[in-house]
From TrEMBL, chain A:
InterPro entries: ABC_transp_permease. It is found in: Cell membrane. Keywords: Cell membrane, Membrane, Transmembrane, Transmembrane helix. This is Branched-chain amino acid ABC transporter permease. It holds the Pfam family BPD_transp_2. The keyword Protease does not apply. Its main location: membrane. GO terms for molecular function: transmembrane transporter activity.
From TrEMBL, chain B:
It comes from the Bacteria. GO terms for cellular component: plasma membrane. InterPro entries: BMP_lipoprotein, Peripla_BP_I, PnrA-like. It is found in: Cell membrane. This is BMP family ABC transporter substrate-binding protein. Residues 1-21 form the signal peptide. Pfam families: Bmp.
Length: 349, 360
């Protein structure tokens, strides 16, 4: 079997297997799998509203996936996307609320930039600690998540005089567009998807077309060799975390300026940052792969909301089914090994 | 379906029809009713009215707030011969904040006559949907949405919590009382402020240990907080923390199981949490501060069915309206103390005591 065929076959077979096992689970628990999957399909592609909302859901996943993937290419495991996203969310919302009479062409970029800078700063700290003191970034980033969550909660209370919400951002900072909303029957689709896709290109460009990108990747492959080759390893580690943090901060801006248009006090994490890890790994840490991973994740996540709505399948069963589909897609590697073994046997004969 | 039920349903429908017709100005209600009747058959035998709700992240089985609302809707459905599903009554659960808009939208699109958003977290979502779907009738609990097609429901939690505070202060032996809150938000602060005022009204020397866990869905945090409080000598804990409060119950029950003479009590919240506190033959539930979300949901549904949907208005339920109060203590609180609590209650209803709403 040619490599190309395997590359196409593996994900396809994985998805089918995932769907099959998911169907069995619905069958065993007494729900109609066909009805359930029809509801899932309708939830994703059913009408123009669903499509708009699905794209909206995919947007932050792309950026969160990029944030994990980018750091991973430099050999860093960025578990702190969640925290970087939350500070980005707050920063964008605050800029959106605090300045009221700026024109949109200044206000919106400023709010987006604020989110990126806040996220970058949240990535800079673990990067610095890793580069200078060899503190493992996994520990620092996880802890920074909690710091981000509760610091932003306190800041939201502070700026809203003890309330739980920053209030709605000014229209001039909003990524939402009446045009896109009209096109998709009032979904919350916003221009953020363009920013997300632009960032996919930016990541590809940095990694593949610049000297910096080459150095970042080299550090990821082998730190000692890179150092021997005269590269500044510390600088590259910090830079990688800063860029990854900026991506994550932008994911927060999508929520602040697009989906929600405000920042509110949170009782727990959003989960987008953690899902970003899976998105990046599903996409093999490549920019284009992340887009596919995010599409799968976002579509399933959003479409699954329709399963209790249309087919009456309880939320708990839906979560299991979705997890199984993703599980099978992620274990495509096992399938690949299996296929390769078969084809090598055939060749031997 | 029996013929008798059919006839009953038909007469109910006719009655509803005449009522609606009498209310000529409310054309929207009639229109939506007509639409939902066409698509589904079973509505003919029952009241031609449908109602649905969206839970917040606590879920429909949170043993307090959302569950109470769902019970109200179920009761309304049963009383009017509705079935769960399209054209009857239904709910959708939200897994994250981003789901509110989608869930509300889904229900509005399924032509439910009234759609409830349960909880202040849905304020912005309800506001958006109300503007996008001006023909829909929406309602929100614990927040005010200023739109002509939204009915807002608020509760005077502080009044109910005041009575809980009185009960705790009168019952406490160690003179140490605990309060476990969920997120530090205005609604929960009303519980806290009312509770503190109630304790102070009885005995200003009692210390109340006030703790916020920062979440409504983290039972383990509730458990550790309760553990610390009980270890420090607190004997009664009032929780206003939704699912987090289940951890408070878990801790109290654990202590009661180890030592049947342990003096630990929990005051439940939102719905009667007596079942939650059962340990063998005994129970750690002193009483529960009721917040009759079920009652409010029921009343609004009923009003809407009669063509009197209170859109654009906000209704406040306090002690006087029996929107808040204490649950039956089932003997945990002796009669003489109940009488004292009743006195305080009367004073609040009569306006002699005004319970503060916010921290000073």
């Amino acid at each position: 079997m040619s490599n190309r065929l395997i590359n196409i076959l593996v994900p396809a077979v994985s998805v089918v297997l995932g769907l099959l096992v998911g169907a069995l689970i619905m069958l065993f628990t007494g729900y109609d799998p066909i009805e359930g999957y029809a509801a899932l399909w309708n939830g994703i592609f059913g009408d123009i509203y669903a499509i708009g909302e699905t794209i909206r859901q995919i947007t932050p996943y792309i950026l969160a996936g990029l944030a994990v993937a980018f750091a991973f290419r430099t050999g860093l495991f960025n578990i702190g996307v969640e925290g970087q996203l939350i500070v980005g969310w707050f920063a964008a919302a605050w800029v959106g609320v605090a300045f009221t009479d700026l024109p949109a062409f200044i206000h919106l970029p400023l709010a987006v930039l604020a989110a990126a800078v806040a996220g970058a700063f949240w990535g800079f700290i673990p990067g610095l600690l890793k580069a200078k003191l060899k503190v493992h970034e996994v520990i620092v980033t996880i802890m920074m998540n909690y710091i981000a969550l509760f610091v932003t909660n306190a800041l939201i209370r502070y700026v809203s005089d003890g309330g739980d919400n920053t209030g709605r951002i000014a229209e001039s900072a909003s990524l939402g567009s009446p045009f896109l909303q009209g096109l998709t029957d009032f979904s919350r689709l916003h221009y953020g998807i363009l920013i997300a896709l632009a960032m996919v290109f930016v990541m590809w460009f940095i990694l593949e077309k610049t000297k910096t990108g080459f150095e970042l990747k080299a550090v990821g492959f082998n730190q000692n060799a890179s150092e021997y080759a005269g590269m500044n390893v510390s600088r590259n580690i910090i830079l990688s975390m800063v860029i990854a943090g900026a991506f994550a901060g932008l994911a927060g801006a999508m929520e602040a300026l697009g989906t929600f248009q405000y920042a509110n006090v949170k009782g727990g994490f959003t989960g987008i940052g953690f899902d970003g890890i899976a998105v990046a790994l599903l996409g093999a840490n490549t920019p284009l792969g992340v887009v596919f991973g995010a599409t799968l994740f976002g579509a399933l996540q959003y479409g699954s909301l329709n399963m209790p709505n249309e087919a009456g399948v309880p939320v708990e069963i839906v979560s299991i089914v979705i997890a199984i589909i993703i599980f099978f897609v992620a274990s495509g590697y096992v399938l690949r090994l299996f296929l390769e073994k078969i084809s090598s046997k055939k060749e031997a004969k | 379906m029996s013929k008798r039920k059919y006839g009953l349903g038909l007469s109910v429908m006719l009655a509803a029809g005449t009522l609606l017709a009498a209310c000529g100005s409310d054309e929207e209600t009639q229109e939506t009713n007509g639409n939902s009747g066409e698509g589904s058959e079973p509505t003919e035998e029952t009241a031609d009215f449908s109602v649905a709700m969206v839970t917040d992240v606590g879920g429909v089985d949170d043993k307090s707030f959302n569950q109470s609302a769902w019970e109200g809707i179920q009761k309304f459905g049963e009383d009017n011969g509705l079935a769960q599903g399209d054209g009857g009554y239904d709910y959708l659960q939200s897994a994250s904040d981003a789901d509110y808009v989608t869930n509300l939208n889904n229900l509005v699109r399924r032509d439910f006559d009234v759609v409830f958003g349960i909880g202040f977290l849905m304020e912005a979502a309800v506001n958006d949907i109300a503007q996008q779907q001006p023909d829909a009738q929406l309602a929100i609990i614990d927040a005010v949405v200023d739109q002509p097609n939204v009915a807002s429901v608020l509760f005077k939690e502080q009044e109910g919590a005041f009575l809980a505070g009185v009960a705790a202060a009168l019952m406490s032996e160690s003179k140490q009382i605990g309060f476990v809150g969920g997120m530090e938000i205005p609604v929960i602060e009303r519980f806290e402020v009312g509770f503190l005022a109630g304790v102070e009204a009885v005995d200003p020397s009692i210390e109340v240990d006030v703790q916020y866990t920062g979440a409504f869905d983290k039972a383990e945090l509730g458990k550790t907080t309760a553990n610390r409080m009980y270890s420090e000598g607190v004997d009664i804990i009032f929780h206003a923390a939704g699912g987090t409060g289940n951890g408070v119950f878990a801790e109290a029950k654990e202590r009661k199981t180890k030592d049947p003479d342990a003096n630990v009590w929990v005051i439940g919240v939102d719905s009667d949490q007596y079942e939650e506190g059962a340990v063998g033959d005994t129970n750690v539930t002193l009483t529960s501060m009721l917040k009759r979300v079920d009652e409010a949901v029921y009343r609004i549904s009923e009003a809407a069915m009669n063509g009197e949907f209170p859109g654009g208005q906000s209704t406040v339920y306090g002690l006087a309206e029996e929107g808040v109060g204490l649950a039956d203590s089932r003997g945990a609180i002796p009669d003489d103390i109940m009488a004292q609590i009743e006195e305080f209650k009367q004073q609040i209803v009569d306006g002699e005591i005004t319970v503060p709403e916010t921290r000073e």
